[in-house]
Amino acid sequence: MRKADELWRAVGEAAGPAGEMTPLLEKVRDAAWTVADGDVAGLSADELYEAVLPVAFAAADEKRRRAYEAIDAG
Predict the structure, then answer these.
(1) What is Dmax (Cα atoms) for the chain?
(2) CA torsion, points 68, 71, 73, 74, in degrees to nearest 10?
(3) Secondary structure of residue 19 in the 3-state scheme
(4) Is the pLDDT of residue 67 over 90?
């Protein structure tokens, strides 16, 4: 199993069923620079750490993998 797949599984376990954190996690995955205070209001530091960190790592790992594939294809 790829490391990114493991991270996405951890994200699912941390976030639980699709719900109130889904928009935040999608924003972290796709456009983290747009996350604002309102996006994280009401969430504890532990909730953020357990859900957001795996998403950020998985997104970075996916971008790294694509970059290596592009280099190898060139």
Answers:
(1) 46
(2) 180
(3) coil
(4) yes
pLDDT at 70: 93
The structure's pTM equals: 0.64
Q: How far apart are CA 54 and CA 72, in angstroms?
A: 27
Going from the C-alpha of 73 to that of each of 2, 31, 55, 70, the distances in angstroms are 20, 26, 27, 5
Is residue 59 within 8 A of residue 33, CB to CB? The reply is no
CA distance 29 to 52: 9
Q: In this structure, how many other beta carbons lie within 10 angstroms of the beta carbon of residue 69?
A: 10
pLDDT on residue 6: 73
Which residue ranges make up each domain of the chain? 3-73
